Amino acid sequence: MEDAEHLKLLSIFHYVMTGLCALGGFFPGIYIFMGGLIVSGAMDPAKGSPPPPGIGWLFVAIGAGLMLLIWGFAVAQFLAARWIGERKNRVFCFVIAGLNCALFPLGTALGVFTILVLQRASVAALFDRPDSGGYLNR
Asked: Residue 2: CB partners within 8 Å, gap ≥ 6?
C-alpha cells in the first residue's frame, strides 16, 4: 500500500509540475513581442539607425523555439504524470524524472524522488501488471 500511495503522490506532483512548465512556456513570448516590435519598426531610436528586421525575426524564431520546447516538455510531463498513475511506461517516467533534475529546485526534488520510488523492485512489479481503471481504483 505504501508504494501505491507514493505513486499517487508522484502523479499529483507531476501534474503540478506540468502546470508550472506550461505557465513558464509563456515567458519566451517576450522575445516574440520584442521581435515583432523590431520587425514592425516600432523600436526606431530617436538618434541613429534602427535595428535591421533580420534581428527581429531572429528574436521571433528564438522565442517561438523556446516556447515550443517548454510546452513540449510540459506535454511529456503530463504523460509521465498520467502513466505513473496508471502504472505504465516506467522507462519513459524514468527519462522524464531525469530531465526534471535539471529544473532546480522543484524539478530536482521531484526527479530525485521519482527515481527513488521507480527503482524499487516492488514498484517495478506494479508496473509489470497494471490494474485497469487508473490509480483511483487502488
From this structure: none
